[in-house]
């Protein structure tokens, strides 16, 4: 297809594209997708080639029929039937809290095996975010004692978790 066909296609586009777009939009059809349908109909006319040699009324009828079929096929497609436009986004992905809940339950159970002194410093430091100095002041003991209880409390907690199947 040479320059003659290109000129003919350009002429047919100029003559029929707006009319086809208005026709497809009335089906009813999305205006942006209607442009795609018109483009596809004109592309099929270009690929056929022989249709472009026919008289204008035949070309017009052929283009309208092709555009109509393309639009109706798309409207009947699963994509169109199942997809809906919305202004409100659906809820975002939310983490499953089951794992976190089970882990918390496991740690709580293991903490219950510690002595009161060890549990106070471990919970105060890790869950309370308290410093050694703060814990020493609140518990009325020396900072070295807090460190010692923390060390042995963590060792006992590690052992309790290992007994429950948690590995390092």
Automatic annotation (TrEMBL):
Organism superkingdom: Bacteria
A GO term for molecular function: sigma factor activity
Keywords from the UniProt entry: DNA-binding, Sigma factor, Transcription, Transcription regulation
Signal peptide coordinates: none
InterPro entries: RNA_pol_sigma-70-like, RNA_pol_sigma-70_dom, RNA_pol_sigma70_r2, RNA_pol_sigma70_r4, RNA_pol_sigma_r2, RNA_pol_sigma_r3/r4-like, WH-like_DNA-bd_sf
Family listed: Belongs to the sigma-70 factor family. ECF subfamily.
Domain RNA polymerase sigma-70 region: 14-79, 110-158
One GO BP: DNA-templated transcription initiation
Organism: Sanguibacter inulinus
Gene3D superfamilies with a match to the protein in the record: 1.10.1740.10, Winged helix-like DNA-binding domain superfamily/Winged helix DNA-binding domain (1.10.10.10)
Record-linked PANTHER family: ECF RNA POLYMERASE SIGMA FACTOR SIGL, RNA POLYMERASE ECF-TYPE SIGMA FACTO
Transcription regulation found in the keyword field: yes
The protein's name in its UniProt record: Sigma-70 family RNA polymerase sigma factor
């Amino acid at each position: 297809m040479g320059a003659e066909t290109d000129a003919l296609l350009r002429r047919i586009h100029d003559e029929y594209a707006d009319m086809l777009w208005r026709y497809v939009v009335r089906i009813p059809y999305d205006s942006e997708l209607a442009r795609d349908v018109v483009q596809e109909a004109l592309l099929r006319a270009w690929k056929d080639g022989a249709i472009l040699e026919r008289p204008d009324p035949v070309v017009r009828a052929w283009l309208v029929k092709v555009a109509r079929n393309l639009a109706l096929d798309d409207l009947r497609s699963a994509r169109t039937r199942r997809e809906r436009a919305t202004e409100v986004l659906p809820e975002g992905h939310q983490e499953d809290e089951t794992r976190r809940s089970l882990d918390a339950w496991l740690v709580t159970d293991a903490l219950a095996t510690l002595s009161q002194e060890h549990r106070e410093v471990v919970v105060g430091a890790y869950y309370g975010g308290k410093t050694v100095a703060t814990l020493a002041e609140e518990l009325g003991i020396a900072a070295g004692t807090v460190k010692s209880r923390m060390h042995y409390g963590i060792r006992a907690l590690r052992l309790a978790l290992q007994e429950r199947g948690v590995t390092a």
